Amino acid sequence: MNKDEYSLKKNDLGAIGIGAMIIFIALILVAAVASTIIIKTAEELQQRAQKTGDDTQDNLGGKILIQGAYVSEESAAGGTADEITIIVQLSSGSDTTPLSEMEWHMACDDGSTTASINAGGFDGVATDLDGTAYATGATVDAGETFLVPIDTSVDCTPSVGDNQEMRVFISGGGDTYASLHYNDVNPGSSIV
């Protein structure tokens, strides 16, 4: 009988296999971590894009368009407009919106050190194109055109040659800017 002797050199192949297995497991762990980071980043980007899209839709869809404006009442003494009326329309793509969420701001400079501000809401004063008043708390739909009278007898009373800045906006939506120029203050005179 012969006795076989094994040397340690013949067992080196097993050590190489264990090293390859350790490297293989390490690569799997690195790939798992990298894929987790990529998936998390993709989810964050998708959420940001969704929020940006929603904000853009609110700003563009939730907007009031100024179709025109005219002097609706002249002062008894003449020379100034005591009331103007703006013709507005809820932009296409807007949701049905309560008038209580709509406002206007008018800024005017009478030559003094500070500009005057005249502001108010649409609720309780807006009327349909035929003059029928909307009830308090009423809503308007996209594309609906209506009138809003603005009392200018206290603040920002315009006279011939005046310019005023006006903004109309919806709470949480976009705003619209218009420059009002008064060439004439007789009732019916266009000012936009």
**CATH class bucket of the largest domain:** Mainly Beta
The overall average pLDDT, rounded, is 84
Q: Could you spell the SSE succession in H and E letters? A: HEEEEEEEEE
| CATH-assigned fold name of the largest domain | Immunoglobulin-like
What CATH architecture of the largest domain would you give? Sandwich
Strand residue content: 25-35%
Poorly predicted runs: none
Class from secondary-structure proportions: alpha+beta
Total number of distinct structural domains: 2
Strands across the major sheet, in which order?
5-4-8-9
Largest sheet: 4 strands, antiparallel
Distance between the termini: 117 Å
Radius of gyration: 35 Å
What's the number of extended β-strand segments? Answer: 9
Helical segment count:
1
- What general form does the structure show? rod-shaped
Give the helix level as a range of percent: 25-40%
Question: Mind explaining what this structure looks like?
Answer:
This protein is of the alpha+beta class and 192 residues long. It folds into 2 domains: 9-60; 64-181, Sandwich (Immunoglobulin-like), CATH 2.60.40. It contains 1 helix and 9 strands. The chain has one helix spanning 12-61, and strands spanning 64-74, 81-90, 97-98, 102-108, 116-121, 139-140, 145-151, 163-170, 175-181. The strands form 3 sheets. A 4-stranded antiparallel β-sheet has the order 5-4-8-9, with no helix packed on it. It has a 3-stranded antiparallel β-sheet with strand order 1-2-7, with no helix packed on it. It is rod-shaped. The mean pLDDT is 84.
